[in-house]
Structure formats: C-alpha cells, structure tokens
Design goal:
With 355 residues, the protein is α/β, with parallel strands linked by helices. The protein has helices spanning 24-36, 58-73, 86-95, 105-111, 122-135, 175-184, 194-198, 203-209, 223-232, 245-249, 273-278, 281-292, 295-306, 311-354, and strands at residues 50-54, 78-82, 100-104, 138-140, 158-162, 190-192, 218-220, 237-241, 253-254, 267-272. Helix content is 48%, strand content 12%. Strand 1 (50-54), helix 2 (58-73) and strand 2 (78-82) form a beta-alpha-beta unit. Helix 2 (58-73) crosses helix 12 (281-292), helix 4 (105-111) crosses helix 5 and helix 12 (281-292) packs across helix 14 (311-354).
Amino acid sequence: MGWSAGRPRLWQPRAVDRSPLRTLVTALCVAAVVVSGCTGSDLPPDVQAVRVAASGDAEGRLLAHVLVALLEAVEVEAEVRPYADARDGQQALELGAADVRPGYTGEAWLETLGRADPPGDPQASFAPVRADGQRRGIVWLPPRFVEGPDGPPANATFALAVAGPPSPDADLRTVSQLAARLSERPEASVCVDREFGSRSDGLRAVLDAYLVRADQPFLAASPEEAVRGVLAGDCLAGLTTTTDGEAGAAGLQVLVDDLEVFPAFVPAVQVREEVLEERPEIAAALAPFGDELTTAALRSWNALVVTGEPIEQIAQAAAEDLLARAAARRAAEAAEAAETEAVEDGAGSEDVADG
C-alpha cells in the first residue's frame, strides 16, 4: 500500500527518535574542521581517506563501520568520524567535514525537508529525499526495492513487537492480526512511550487506522522497558523499532505494519557529489549496502551489538555477508540470462528448420 492522504500523521516518540539533542562541543568541532582543515588523521597529506560520518546511536555507528568495511574491501582507505547525533553528522556532510554518511529517509523528511508526514512506503519515502539531496550537492545512492517485508531495502521504522515462541501470541505476523487479537482481549495492554500513548496523533492514531478501540489500555515504557514488558507478560505488544537489537536478542517477533501507518526509515548511503565525481569507484563499492541490506539482517546485527560483540567485528562480518549476497544474486541473474538466451536460440533454430 502506497502513501495516501488518508494515512494518519503520527507524532514521533522521543524515546525512539534517532536524533537526540545536539551538543555545542560537537557543533564547534564541525566548524573547526571546516575552517582549519584539521582532521586528526595520521595519514600522509597526499592520501585522503574517505571520511564516514557516524551518529551517536549504536545502529548509526554500526552502519558507518559497515560502509568503511565495504570500502576497504576494494582497497579504498576509509575511516569513521563520530558525531554526537544525526544532525551533527548531516551538517558535517553538507559542510565537507565528512564524505559519506548512512542516512535514513524518514529522518531526512523530518529534519531536512522539514515535513512531519513521512510516507510509510519505502520507495515513496526515497524519491523526494534523493531529489532534495541533489539540490544540496548530496547524492543518495539508490537502494534496490523488492516487494515484501523480507527483501531490501531495510526499513528501520517504528514497530510493534510481541513475544516469540512458546508464547500464544507468537502466531501473530502483522499489526492487523494484532488488532484482531486486541479486539478479542480488550483488557490487554500495549507498552509504548508515555507521550505517544496519550496523544491523539500517537497510539490512538495507530489504533484508529487498524480499527482498534481508542481506549485500549497502555503502559508507559521506553523501548527497552517495552521489550522487558512483553517478555514478562505485562503487555501483549510493545513499541520499538523494526531493527531494535534488544528485541532481536530477546527473541521478540516484530510485526509487519501491513497498512504502512508508521513512516518509512530506509537506511541509505549519502555521498557528497564532488567526492563521487573525483572517486566514482565509491558508488560501486557501497552498492551492496543498498542492494542487499534487509530489516531482518540489520536487526540481527544490532542484536549482536547488544550481546557485547565489538562493533568493528560485527561490521566486518556484515560487509562480507552483503558482498556474498550480491555475488550470489549476480550469479543467479547471469545463469537465468544464459538459460533464457539458450531457450531463445533453440526456438530460433527450430524456426529456421521449419522454414
């Protein structure tokens, strides 16, 4: 289902917002880098490593390290540049203090386009963001769009999650199915951010879209508390994100937002246009990120972060996985093309013989 005028406008809960308050220290650092050119790198002046901006949250750092690993796989030197949050990372990219950044389409709708109505459809979310980036000298590398929740691109949007097996609710797969279960169990609670639960454009808007009674009880909870609440049986479902490592590590089942009520947050690579002009090989090196990254894969990597594995180690394995998927897909496509060509050649030979 694509974007429609009838889709509710949702308030974004602070607890799962990927852009915490900016810090003055980081803002001053960005300015200093742009003015002075000081990078803190030990590389010789004639060797310019690709600078990949990383936001302060764990997923942002992980994705930045994945991009570095993909670049280094083709012998392009790269380094992660940490920033306090997404806004500082975006500012660094636009001011030239960073060359590459993993961004989110929903984040760009809210922060860059200044619009509070990001669409729920991933493809509809990407096109306006890419067009706006071109006007700013920023290229959003296009991901591969495959229909269905299991294919790329990843969508790191908000989500409702329920307990996995052996819970009796483990049979739920979509929010529509959850809505039916809530209708059967009007006493069941949902764990959500406190303000999201109390606002008319928060939980009530979601419940209304899925035709659930507006007075469904909820328990105020952060995403981490929501995961624990679902595990403890205090709530039937909890609000988190589709790529939440806590939910993944706990074995929770993230439900498909089949009406696309939640805004799409597609992770995609941003590159400064002048950098791509000077080094076009960067686009090819980073293509597997957009072509192969799925929501489930990103959630599994985030779960490893939660368990304490080093981010650099997870990122290296993740990059190798993306490259392997890309190679397998290319091989399958080549085999299919060869088979089609053989069938067409055979049909042509029969026509000649008949003639």
